[in-house]
Amino acid sequence: FTVANKACCGVGRYGGALTCLPFEKPCEDRDHHVFWDAFHPTQAVNKIIFESCYAPASTYCYPMGFQSLATI
Prior knowledge:
Helices cover 24% and strands 0% of the residues. By secondary structure, it is mostly helical.
């Protein structure tokens, strides 16, 4: 990620004061941003988190990863 200190869509300082409002234009390089708005990570960050937690021997998700949870 190249932008970790500014939200892709939002208002206020660093785009982090509020969520993305209607008619607010989001950034075009959203895969380079960590944050979508003041509260949510971008899809690229969510993908990394999911892939880290889906691994069978995940140490990031406790007490079990998503793959183990899906087989219950």
